[in-house]
Design a protein that fits this description.
Length: 139
């Protein structure tokens, strides 16, 4: 028997302290997928990015992959992207797309993302798995 459950939201905030440390290190000037962004205004997959990008994409498979590939395209235009992703090292995306194009840094411990679950309740629980930074440097 199949149950129809509302999908888990795909919009979670990067912990502020973690972001601030990254921003101090990389000095970001753009976020192509900001929290609670209105896609009718612009879509981060369809526009040019800044010179130094912080990317915490939605973690659904298609969007995560699309933002990684867009970051690789942007690197060919001289742009840096730092992407925060779940540490899924057993995927095709990791082995065939990320590894050949990026520097990887694993995050110690589990981050606490903030957002609302499928029941509309505010959550600040540790992530279900570890995280990694995918650093795609300008080419």
């Amino acid at each position: 028997m199949k149950f129809n459950r509302p999908p888990q939201p795909d919009n979670w905030a990067t912990p502020k302290e973690f972001y601030n440390k990254l921003n101090k290190r990389f000095i970001f000037d753009f976020d192509p997928c900001p929290l609670n962004h209105d896609l009718t205004k612009w879509n981060g997959l369809e526009i040019e990015w800044g010179a130094r990008n912080f990317v915490n994409p939605p973690y659904s498979k298609k969007l995560k992959e699309a933002f990684v590939k867009k970051a690789i395209e942007q690197s060919k235009k001289g742009k840096l992207s730092v992407i925060l992703l779940p540490a899924s090292t057993d995927t095709i995306l990791f082995h065939e797309v990320i590894l050949p194009n990026a520097q990887i840094e694993f995050v110690k411990g589990r981050l606490r993302f903030e957002g609302y679950n499928k029941d509309g309740e505010f959550c600040n629980h540790p992530a279900q798995k570890g995280s990694m930074l995918v650093i795609i440097k300008p080419k």
